[in-house]
Request: fold
Amino acid sequence: MKLSSDPVGPRSVHRKALLNALADQLPINSIRFSSKLTAIETQEHEGSSISIIHMADGTVIKAKVLIGCDGVHSVVARWLGLAEPVYSGRSAVRGLAVFPQGHGLDNNVQQYLGLGRRAGFVPLNDKEIYWFFTCTSPAKGADMVDEPEVIKREVIENYAKDLPPIYLDVVQHSDLSALTWAPLMFRYPWHVVFGNLSKQNITVAGDAMHPMTPDLAQGGCSALEDAVVLGRHIGKSFIQNGQLVPKEMAVTIGKYVEERRWRVALLIAGSYLSGWVQQAGSGWGMKFLRDAIFYRFFYLIIIKFTRYDCGKLNF
Reply:
């Protein structure tokens, strides 16, 4: 089905383009690649907390603020004592299809629903298309493979073999270097609401704080919201004091956490519910639940969560 009823509509962005745009705003050599965080310590210095970060290559970094953006299996989240993410019972294949001569498709999201599976695609530009396929998996990682060529063949010849030719053609044009198959993880919303999202000058953002299933397409969006909100709070403190004052960081980060806690918890819950309803099958009972109840009432509430203004970075 086409998702065309939303007057605002989705906005697709190539992740590489987004990362490049963000990186271009940083001073040269700000980003360290191939760096793995192995341990975190804290020290008291002149009445405030300083974070000491140990990297796998032996590098030790002292920081006035530590923001863990290290993904679903976050070392920082574990250090804070946050409960581990849980397996949703589904896996997802994500790919990038490339049409050197152009794909000729409209810039609309196309989605296909079936019992225990969900598939779709959306053009990123006139030559590239993002596509996905999610399916129920009884055990975490049981059906995962590491070879991109095998993943593509499994989707085309097995999991999606009865989907329309247009979808299979998109999958066939996949860039194998960008093809992934992974379990869908999420953190229980109540662990976010009641969990320890910060300690002194240490906090988390993005998937490290609120991993969620991709059914509302809000994972990356909510991470950007985190960045704006956190940047605004830290920026205000910096402007007021002319520098980062370590002893004020606990209060500053606490304000960020409280502003984000309930919003991301609701996104996690709404995304999980949306995925469950849409992937539960096409029988008459589920179709009635989905079309007559969920889309008519609950989805309108859930979609409002995505139309959120997190404010600007004006200090």
Notes: Residues 1-5 have pLDDT under 50 and may be disordered. The chain has two domains: 65-85+188-306, 88-185.
